[in-house]
UniProtKB/TrEMBL annotation:
Gene: lgt_1
Annotated GO CC locations: plasma membrane
PANTHER family: PHOSPHATIDYLGLYCEROL--PROLIPOPROTEIN DIACYLGLYCERYL TRANSFERASE, PROLIPOPROTEIN DIACYLGLYCERYL TRANSFERASE
Signal peptide, first to last residue: none
Keyword tags: Cell membrane, Membrane, Transferase, Transmembrane, Transmembrane helix
Any Pfam family hit: LGT
Molecular function terms, GO-annotated: phosphatidylglycerol-prolipoprotein diacylglyceryl transferase activity
The name this protein goes by in its record: Diacylglyceryl transferase
Length: 230
């Protein structure tokens, strides 16, 4: 997944990413009225998300850039899949370190896809993260990778809002999102114009599989925990 943006002014991706950070910060601050540990969890999770975004990019395609402009690629490159995985690990890790045991995930099944939509709108405006060349109705010569991912996340918001309203799979929504998004990104990556140096797979596909597996493991653990309380 190419996430390197250059020769663009203003940088819409950075602006939409900043908006997503502000939105998530507002949610955490709102939750932290009852517990002062939550702002610290958020700050640590945000740091893990940025670290994950960078590491995922470097593993997936950053190492392929060896020219004189490699530093520009290495500094600017980032990955939504890495940010999602890093942020989730950061939240769970620092909640455990701080002894915070309340479940926070269900609302994030709404706010995370919304944040990803904001980021992808930045991609759409900047014209990055293109799909593979193909022939489509309407004269399109490339797969509309960014609009398809936006559509997936819009559907995710609608589905989880309905599940929240009906109280279906309570406390499992974010785990289900991790599973669904991970599988979606693994399959959708075949239609994206990204380097695929790992036996025909991209690094982002491997990370997407990890996201889905982590979500499945977390779902099963939460299910056992909930059954034990009945």
């Amino acid at each position: 997944m190419s996430e390197v943006f250059q020769n663009v002014s203003p940088n819409w991706y950075s602006l939409t990413m900043l908006l997503a950070i502000i939105l998530s910060a507002y949610y955490w601050i709102k939750m932290s009225r009852d517990d002062g540990r939550l702002p610290l969890v958020y700050i640590c999770a945000l740091g893990c998300a940025f670290l994950g975004a960078k590491v995922a990019y470097l593993i997936s395609e950053g190492w392929l850039h060896t020219g004189d402009d490699r530093w520009l690629h290495w500094l600017a490159g980032k990955s939504i899949t890495g940010a999602l995985l890093g942020g989730y690990i950061g939240v769970e890790l620092f909640k455990k370190l701080l002894g915070y045991q309340r479940i926070t995930g269900d609302r994030f099944a709404l706010i995370v896809p919304f944040s990803i939509i904001l980021g992808r709108l930045g991609c759409l405006i900047q014209g990055c993260c293109a799909g593979v060349s193909c022939v489509l109705p309407g004269g399109l010569d490339r797969w509309p990778a960014v609009p398809v991912e936006i559509a997936f996340n819009v559907c995710a918001i609608l589905v989880f809002a309905y599940m929240r309203h009906r109280k279906w799979q309570t406390y499992q929504h974010f785990h289900l999102y991790l599973i669904g998004y991970g599988l979606f990104r693994f399959l959708h990556e075949f239609m994206r114009a990204t380097p695929k140096p790992f036996a025909g797979l991209s690094g982002y596909q491997l990370i997407a599989l990890v996201i889905a597996i982590v979500g499945l493991i977390a779902y099963c653990r939460r299910k056992r925990m909930l059954l034990a309380t009945i």
